[in-house]
Amino acid sequence: MKRNLLLVAAFLLTAYFTYGQKNITLQFNKEGQFKIAQFTDVHWDNKSPNCIKTTEVINYVLQVEKPDLAVLTGDIVTAPPTKDGWRALGKIFEKAKIP
User: Fold this and answer.
1) Is residue 15 part of a domain?
2) Which of 7, 72, 74, 87 could lock 40 by a disulfide, CB 3.0 to 4.6 Å apart?
């Protein structure tokens, strides 16, 4: 339970510092729906040739599903330097304009 609270707090802080200052408003669409795309256990490694395929899959899902929010869970960036991995992943969602 305590671990879950820490994970939720970390997510909320990350979301605030990433999007809180950019005035992105999350809201239901005209049909009263809100779609979330979840990407889990990506195991991102900037040095891996698999990143190209992973990027293609993420872009495909974002184009087809048109989510209002994307969430990354599980083992995301698994190789150093992790900061560069997170930046590379973040660019995918920034380009798609999906918070």
Assistant:
1) no
2) 74
